[in-house]
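Chapter review. Work through the record for Drug:proton antiporter before attempting the end-of-chapter questions.
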Amino acid sequence: MLGLYISVFLGMLSETSMNITLPDLMTDFGISSGTAQWMVVGYMLAIGVVLPCVGFMLKWIKAKTLVLFALACFLIGAVVCTIAPTFPILLVGRIMQGVSTGIVLPTMYAAIMRVFPLHKIGAANGVAGLVIMFAPVIGPTIAGALIGAFSWRAIFALFAVVAVVAIVCTALFFVTPIERTRPSVDVISILASAIGFGCLVAGVSLISDMGFSVAVIGLLVVGVLVLACYAYRQLHIADPLLDLRALGIAAFRTPAIMISCSFSCTLAFMYLVPQELQRGMGLSSTLAGLLMLPGGVINALCTLAAGRLFDRYGAKKLVWAGSVLTVIGGALFFAIGVSTPIALFLAAHMIVMIGIPFIQQSSQSAALKSLPGHMAADGSTIMNTMQQVCGAIATAVATCLLGLGQMNYTAAGGTNPAQGFVDGSRYGYLFGLALVVVVLACSFLLKERQEEPKLVPVHVDIEKLAA
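Structure tokens for Drug:proton antiporter:
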């Protein structure tokens, strides 16, 4: 699994390192902030288009071959970005990286189901979560250091080096644990998937910059309608591109919803918190990043611990504990004001960062464990697609609620921009807490699959049978 773990870490590192480079890209290429934002939107768009097709790809292509292809795409994309003379060429390289991440992310979870026995799924999933959560902890710090010492091109050069390491590890150690059934190719489903998920992710991602403009509404409407047709077709053809019947299994559907809600809560909080530190409490970007580091480290460690605890206690108890902690930490965010002591923020942030992994990792392990082996690839793809789409929606909702809160503060006669930002952030925190309440409600419906049956010797009386 080492090659896949490094591959997913690389994808998450790339996703979380890019925001800090946007001002430098605007200066070097002479582009607007809206144009530079396509470095983020294009990456998410590539993931959203490719990810739903991965389950089908794994039924046709050896998993090892597919991962090596994805890493080759990432390596080429990183090299292209490193030497890109113009922004369009830079964007092409960035999209190639998104294609790679869209492939390796669901493949990792599908492989976990086949490489590890059921009683070790939690521990394996905890390692995967640790890999994913460690990237956001160090990504912005590494990116800032490389920009300060060299330039933004050094970030992509680093990506290329890590990609080479991942290719070597995959070639040496990874196996092909997923059988190939080679179903018939449904071109209509492939096109519908690309158009539907592409339009939906693009529309949601652009809300924060363009608002609910005609173009954004058009993308959302087309995305929803095409996806409705896509879902209907998947449920009525013999060889679906993505086996949505997995959502008919309650033991999978419930934790999948819980994962999406907890992931959305995390993205909403992580969107608001660093901005509130800077624009609400008046801290520098450097200090804000340092203040978020303890919570990020704790989150990564708890992610690993949650996986191992799942194997011992199951999902329900961990979800309940995680939900309570997240609600307590989220409630403390409401007490943060313009002149709040930093210690209060650190306490609130660390409590939330302890609670979230207990929800997410235990739910993810329960969802993977509930599926039969032949549905592992489709189930992993469904979960990751739901997270990407719901995460994009959550960020857009948090942005809109932030603006609404600021407008209400101004309408009430407020004149302090910092206090207005604090008030607006509380609207977003309330949205995050509502998502945690949904998780807690769903946890009471959680049905967990038991361990795999063990072989029991049976005594047979040969003489009696012969008689």
